[in-house]
Write the structure tokens for this entry.
Amino acid sequence: MALGLGLLTVLELYPLHGFNGWDLSPPALWPVLATAAIAPLAWRRRHPLAALGTQVVAETATVLLFHHLGFSGFVLTGLLIGAYSAGAHSENRAWSLALALSAGILPDVGYSLTRWMGGLPGSYAVIPFTAWLIGHAVRAQRRQVAGLRERALRLERERDATARAAVAEERARIARELHDVVAHAVSVMVVQTEAARRMLRRRPDEAEAALRTVSSTGSEALSELQHLLGVLAGDVNQAALEPAPGLGDLDALVERVRAAGLLVAVHLDGELRPLPRGLDLTAYRIVQEALTNVLKHAGTSRATVCLRFDGDCLGIEVTDTGRGVSGSNGTGRGLVGMRERVAAYGGELQAGPRPEGGYTVRARLPLEVAG
């Protein structure tokens, strides 16, 4: 910028012989003062106060020595750029404002002492003061934008930390529930094995039935253990001793939701099959969480639950006709929990607003563990 203004100053002065033809060509010493007024723009960002102060001294010296405000309009433009830079880049607002006012007052007063222009001395200070105000406003806007960006980054970090905490908490809860399922299966195996041992000689048929129960229960427990190993449980408190719910408890869940004011229609597509305890619990929790989200956030009184047993997978779909907002207003724990549960069984989860209005939660759970 400094070099460009210097070249424009040379092109303006020498062909035109003075500022707008008023005066003759400037004195020989004036190029030194013009350089002193323009060159400081090269460091106007790093040292804005020093740059503007040098410009004020050079412009005032020009007035006192040659009785002229400036032989070039580009020199005066450089002075305004210096005032703007002081407002935009200086940390010291008081000093930058004082120098900006001095850029208009000192040369104007010195000029008034040599030539009477009919104006009020110092009135031209409004021009560099306006340039300083513009620079100060730009600086304030930049600081505000930087603050907003920093706040957005901080919120993003906090959101990620909250999401990680929600994942850890949900995994701990899943681990507790799967632990109950496995513990129950092992208990059943112990009881059935003891019964088979006692009946082995007297009632071999009943002993064989008990051993078949042990075999199927052991296979189911082994499958649940494979899922349990993939869940980071951490240190958790002792789980509740009540049995974990499943799809068999869906009617009771629907009745409770209806009592809260939400009309729920349940549709079953295909033949209902017995499921492993962990998978049954996962399906129940997905329906429970989706209906809870409808109650909290959807703003509607109707919802539909569809269970679809199709080949080797179980499809779960919960839809509503509400506002079409997410089922987690803020922390995202609802969807996080459902995604973790579905991922623990190698399934898929989709959630989002419907084109015709409302919201849909759709899960697909493989049933290989049921075999």
In short: The chain has three domains: 2-121, 163-229, 247-370.
